[in-house]
Amino acid sequence: MTQSNETTRRWLRRAGSARLEFGADYNPDQWPREVWDDDVRAMREAGVTIVSLAIFSWARLEPCDGEYDLGWLDEVMDLLHAGGITVDLATATASPPPWLTRKHPEILPVTRTGEVLWPGARQHWRPTSPVFREHALRLVEKLATRYADHPALVAWHVNNELGCHNVYDYSDDAARAFRVWLRERYGTVEALNHAWGTAFWSQRYDDFEEILPPRLAASHPNPTQQLDFKRFSSDALKDHLRAERDLLRRITPEVPVTTNFMVMGGMNPMNYADWAAEVDFVANDHYVVPGPQARDELSFSANLTGNIAGGEPWFLMEHSTSAVNWQPVNVAKKPGELARDSLTHVAHGADAVCFFQWRQSRAGAEKYHSAMLPHAGTDSDLFRGVARLGERLRELAPIAGSRRRRAAVGIVFDWESWWTAEQDSHPTDRLRYRQEALDWYTALLDAGVRADVVPTGGPLEEYRLLVAPVLHVVPAALADRLAAWVAAGGHLVTTYFSGIVDENDHVWLGGYPGALRDLLGIRIEEFGPLLDGESVALDDGTTGTLWTDRIDVTGPDVEVLARYRTGEQADRAAVTRRRVGAGSAAYVSTRLGPDGLAGLLPRLLGPAGVAGELPAELAGRVELAIRGDHWFLINRTDQPVDLQALPGAPEVLEARGVAVFTN
Fold it and tell me: Which residues belong to any copy of the Glycoside hydrolase family 42 N-terminal domain (predicted)?
């Protein structure tokens, strides 16, 4: 996997001193010309420095096949530049115009059940369609040529949220491209047959031309075929990103190119750790989904984005000032949450804070989605909060360009384990990979311990303690890497359903946890998924759900940290730890949740020499993040927090507030 920290990063093409950028998507083509001047005046009042422009403007830019209308965009670019506002200019290829789909319906995506996704929303295009690619690149070339030297242009914005609605296309175009991808991966059909285990259910292939995407089938499709289709689908979108990027770099080599990732919630089809090397700087969109861990999930996603970016500053391309429009119930943010959400991203490395969108739409599917300038106008609490945030970001300008300080603890995050662990025909369909990782992150926040969320290809060896929840896919090379790191003094913690399969989704034989069995000094013969409502009690007073393992301890140097107290597993090990060389390897065989992990963490952190960096009375109440010599204290509560125990900090951190100071 190509890692982002091996890539030479470029930030925005602009002169002047470093600053934290502030802005939004801007859609002037939704509004009459007389509104544009008011927009720029209000942007200046709010402190806006950058906008992402023309993201969904293809139908306006090219109203007919090969006929362009760019005069309005010229005027907007000039107007923004005159107002001191820079532009992240989109290639506008996210949603094809009606004339294109009418002439070429063969660009429309097809679902696994054979249904066509018709125009009327957005992203109705096949990532592998040569016809779509041709028209998209024609538009990109037109825009790049026209605006290459425009003084407002500071970056290119490829497409928009690639794969948000069209990642899995099962069309004939996709089938052809999938076969090409498989030939490149395996070389021969014999190698593919081995990797896919096609001896099962008489699936042996004689020719690549016989292979299809995993369309609707009579039963569960081949699991390795499903995994490879996920890999292929991520790569197909990455290939489109590269095609637009390469054209832009050829015409405007001095202008950096990015696209907005979606590291948030359950959005897992795109392997962003693999994509990061393809852009000049990482950008991300994030939206809060209500729930008991909502703000911890925001921090988790920002943290992961920062590590996808290799610790370098990144761009928060979209989030919301208040309510969104696409959840079942869309609740406005509480006072202070607009700033806290934004500054949490900054704490984890964002050097730009932008929203969807600048002016709240009057019509269309997102007219009830909040914006920087709401329906109520500038005379509104929301706009005043936006302006205060703009002022705060100006004050924090010295932070721009600084790197995040690495934590002692790393939470290992692996897209292929996420994809594979949640496939069908498994011991349980209740397992949620990201939730287990988030539970550990929350438990560490509650303990006042900083942790990085780091992809498997990242600098794992630089951490003292690694938590690898549900590390399901473990190729031999990764197993060897972890074993060597532990022997050299690293401390590994992993969980149920880890180490089970190799990169082909083939089970490691000899008992579970497979590739990690010898390192952990344990052996498990059968999985123990729990039914809904079932739980298991542990002798440390905690309760496990979702999963339980019948562990046989095989190593004489294995310490049992907790045992099951009830049920068929009574008196058997539930949590183990084995000393290995200068390090250790621990195993947690059930889902404990943040509360259950709280009592276990000290026994895992202690041997690794990891302790919190905050006074005990602040642990859990505030989150600590560090960039350069700046400490961010983020209030996780709805109550003021006394900070007098921390030298250099303000005396009180307001409810839902963020304090930033040097230490």
Answer: 25-395
DSSP classification of residue 140: H
Q: How far apart are CA 101 and CA 638, in angstroms?
A: 50
User: Residue 8, Cβ neighbours under 10 Å: how many?
Assistant: 5
Cα 410 to chain centroid distance, Å, stands at: 16
How far apart are alpha carbons 513 and 379 in whole angstroms?
60
Longest Cα pair distance anywhere in the chain, in angstroms? 79
Q: 237 and 270 in contact (C-beta within 8 Å)?
A: yes
Q: What's the predicted TM-score (pTM) here?
A: 0.97
Q: 8 falls in which pLDDT band (50, 70, 90)?
A: low
Q: Of 430, 408, 406, nearest to 601 (Cα)?
A: 408
Nearest to 107 by CA among 115, 92, 91, 118: 118
Which sequence positions are flagged as catalytic?
161, 318
User: Parallel, antiparallel, or unpaired for β 491-495 and 465-468?
Assistant: parallel
SS (H, E, C) 583-596: EEEEEECCECHHHH
Within 13 Å of residue 229, how many CA atoms lie on the same side as its CB? 21
Mean pLDDT within 320-339: 97
C-alpha 56/C-alpha 78 separation (Å) is 20
- Rounded Cα distance between 284 and 302, Å, is 9
310: left (phi over 0), alpha (psi -120 to 50) or beta: left
Chain position carrying tokens 């360009």: 401
Q: Can you tell me whether residue 475 is helix, strand or coil?
A: coil
